[in-house]
């Protein structure tokens, strides 16, 4: 039994998160709700990956693994991400308990308490919570109207910052940062000590050829940490398998932090991840084709609602929809939930996300169409009926 006194004792880190977090607290949706809120594929993990996990367990891959990550998996990831720039020995890869643990380890490794960290936003809301946890100061810089980097503003904010966090492709915007903007950012940061942390969790879900990894931008060379995950591309959200790509020196520090907090990543999961890289390509293409079809339908459905505007998603499976009614985004999200469609409030993703909602099209076409029907009826006026 916890005493009343102990129940009120929290660390300053917890209190900072409680006071500043924009992330939703959750709650039970009403019966019959359509969920367009979750950032999770509605596909199961490819069978070849599940079978690999099963076989690994049968083969006795049930013991502690390498604290830096399975060597063969790290070598395979290095061959994919940096064969042209680094030896494919895997020493610049750190395998982590999903991308969230990667983010926590990277920020702990490169950011001191009290430091400033620049976040071009709207952007993934976990960044702010992690920064609050370690006692750093998030500095928000709005994206441009077309959801690209405002490079001069980001560079100005980063003059004395420890890091800049990019989300590319964007959550919640669905935008892909242009190669030109990344190159210009690198030039503008010359002389700065800021590390560029590029969260590329959705790099495998892109609808044209526009995506360029920050690691492949020469002007950013020497200051980039790429964060990625198997969760989205391979529909492996519950497996918790992520990784970072950076210099060997920084990778060693990231691994030190990660293993201090978490220990080694599940050994059998890593063996399954290796099979995903090598054998699940056709499954990935199948899922990507489905997202393409859903994306086109979302563009059509959004165009039928006069009260909203939306930039066409270029990557990930999100549409960031701005509306022209005078209500806070959180209120709109709550009222839509009452009408039976779950979305995320744009304000969750930063100050300039106000006046918008995020919908996920990682859902069935049937749910997408029904969800948009309810959204359209909501914006049409108070006569909404289920």
From TrEMBL:
SUPFAM superfamilies with a match to the protein in the record: PLP-dependent transferases (SSF53383)
Keywords from the named record: Aminotransferase, Pyridoxal phosphate, Transferase
Q: Which cofactor does it need?
A: pyridoxal 5'-phosphate
The similarity annotation says: Belongs to the class-I pyridoxal-phosphate-dependent aminotransferase family.
Matching InterPro entries: Aminotransferase_I/II_large, AspAT/PAT-like, PyrdxlP-dep_Trfase, PyrdxlP-dep_Trfase_major
Question: Which branch of life, at top level?
Answer: Bacteria
Residues forming the Aminotransferase class I/classII large domain are 34-372
Q: What is this enzyme's class at the first EC digit?
A: transferase
Pfam families given for it?
Aminotran_1_2
Q: What's the protein name?
A: Aspartate aminotransferase
Annotated spans, Disordered = 21-40
Write the Enzyme Commission number(s) for this entry. 2.6.1.1
Q: Which GO molecular function, any one, fits this protein according to its record?
A: pyridoxal phosphate binding
GO annotations under biological process? amino acid metabolic process
Gene3D superfamilies linked to this entry: Type I PLP-dependent aspartate aminotransferase-like (Major domain)
């Amino acid at each position: 039994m916890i005493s009343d006194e102990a129940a009120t004792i929290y660390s300053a880190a917890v209190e900072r998160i409680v006071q500043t977090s924009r992330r939703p607290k959750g709650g039970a949706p009403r019966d019959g709700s359509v969920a367009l809120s979750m950032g999770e594929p509605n596909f199961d993990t490819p069978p070849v990956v599940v079978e690999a996990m099963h076989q690994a367990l049968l083969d006795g891959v049930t013991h502690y693994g390498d604290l830096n990550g399975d060597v063969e998996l790290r070598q395979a990831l290095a061959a994919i991400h940096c064969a042209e720039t680094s030896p494919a020995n895997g020493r610049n890869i750190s395998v982590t308990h999903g991308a969230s643990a990667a983010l926590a380890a990277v920020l702990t490794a490169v950011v001191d308490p009290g430091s400033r960290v620049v976040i071009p936003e709207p952007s993934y809301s976990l960044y702010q919570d992690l920064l609050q946890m370690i006692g750093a100061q998030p500095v928000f810089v709005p994206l441009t109207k077309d959801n690209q980097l405002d490079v001069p503003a980001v560079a100005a904010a980063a003059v004395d910052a420890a890091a800049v966090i990019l989300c590319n492709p964007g959550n919640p915007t669905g935008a892909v940062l242009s190669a030109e903007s990344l190159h210009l950012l690198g030039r503008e940061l010359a002389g700065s000590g800021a590390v560029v942390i590029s969260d590329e969790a959705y790099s495998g879900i892109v609808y044209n050829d526009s995506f360029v990894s920050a690691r492949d931008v020469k002007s950013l060379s020497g200051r980039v940490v790429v964060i990625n995950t198997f969760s989205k591309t391979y529909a492996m959200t519950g497996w918790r398998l992520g990784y970072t790509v950076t210099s060997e020196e920084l990778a060693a520090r990231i691994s030190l932090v990660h293993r201090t907090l978490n220990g080694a990543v599940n050994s059998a999961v890593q063996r399954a991840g290796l099979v995903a890289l090598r054998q699940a390509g056709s499954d990935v293409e199948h899922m990507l084709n489905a997202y393409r079809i859903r994306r086109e339908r979302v563009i059509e459905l959004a165009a039928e609602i006069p009260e909203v505007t939306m930039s066409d998603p270029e990557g990930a499976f999100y549409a960031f929809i701005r509306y022209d009614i005078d209500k806070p985004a959180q209120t709109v999200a709550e009222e839509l939930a009452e009408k039976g469609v779950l979305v995320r409030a744009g304000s969750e993703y930063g100050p300039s996300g106000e006046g918008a909602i995020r919908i996920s099209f990682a859902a069935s076409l049937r749910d997408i169409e029904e969800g948009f029907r309810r959204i359209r009826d909501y914006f049409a006026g108070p006569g909404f009926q289920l």
